[in-house]
Amino acid sequence: MPSPHSPNQNQLLAALTPAEFEPLAALLERVPLALGEVLYEPGGQLQHAYFPTTAIVSLHYVMASGASAESVGVGNEGVVGIALFTGGNTTPSSAVVQTAGHAYRLERSKLLQEFNRAGLMQRLLLRYTQALITQMMQAAACNRHHSIEQQLCRWLLLTLDRLPSNELVMTQELVASMLGVRREGITEAAGKLQRAGLISYRRGHIAVLDRAGLETHACECYAVVKKELSRLLPDVRSGQDIAATVQ
Asked: What is the pLDDT of residue 3?
């Protein structure tokens, strides 16, 4: 089991072999991430990559009108800052902490140095990037074709997958901002799920009471994302295992 604060709480870092992880160990800096903290501004030069352990970071696109919507969330399964190794160095979206917690950050030159070694870390980061693109594409399709209730179920399930408990500290206003819908729509959808006994909501706390029921109410988008994450980033116990699968 990982310690209360350990890089192994991040699945990408945990998948590295001891030989691959050792050069990074002294370079990783554990940092607290506060709710609402902005890690990246649109168009700004990225300085660090963040490997969340207990925090969740939301990548947002903000329109000229000020309206925004989440394109994808990143938790302990991934890394924030793919533009650093894909060559862009900047991004039109913002990165905002959705759930407070911790992450390990790595200075951009050190990340590039490790990526350019063309070892396991590079293969993991490329696999994760493909998984992230899948999530973005699926979210775009879901937001266009599925009901707010289905979108809320998908979002809740993906968030739960990144948390150690079944409770989220989240206001309806924030959820509405994540999905890019009106607060009234979230209120109505959450009310239906609560009456069905799937969730409970009180003063900014959402607790999932029946996960299986929530999955039943969700559209196929959650299952598609979950399957792709499992295919690209297998849940293994040692870096040796994933080293054999990520080729």
From this structure: 52
Structure tokens at 156: 């809740």
Structure token digits, residue 144: 């266009």
Burial of residue 113, with CB atoms counted within 10 A of its CB: 0-12 exposed, 13-18 middle, 19 or more buried: middle
| Entry pTM | 0.86
Rounded to the nearest integer, the mean pLDDT of the chain is 86
Interval 114-156: pLDDT, tens: 999 888 999 999 999 999 998 888 888 888 899 999 999 999 9
Indicate the DSSP class of residue 24: H
Q: Which domain holds residue 27?
A: 7-143
CB under 8 Å to 39, separation ≥6 — which residues? Answer: 33, 50, 57, 80, 95, 96, 97
State what percent of residues in the chain have pLDDT above 90: 46
Give the sheet arrangement for strand 68-74, strand by strand.
Answer: 38-40, 94-99, 56-62, 68-74
- Tell me how far apart the terminal alpha carbons of the chain are, to the nearest angstrom: 27
Domain containing residue 113: CATH number: 2.60.120.10
133 and 48 share one domain: yes
Range 24-33 average pLDDT: 94
Does 115 lie in the same domain as 42?
A: yes
Whether 82 contacts 99, CB under 8 Å: no
Cα separation, 108 vs 113, in Å, equals 9
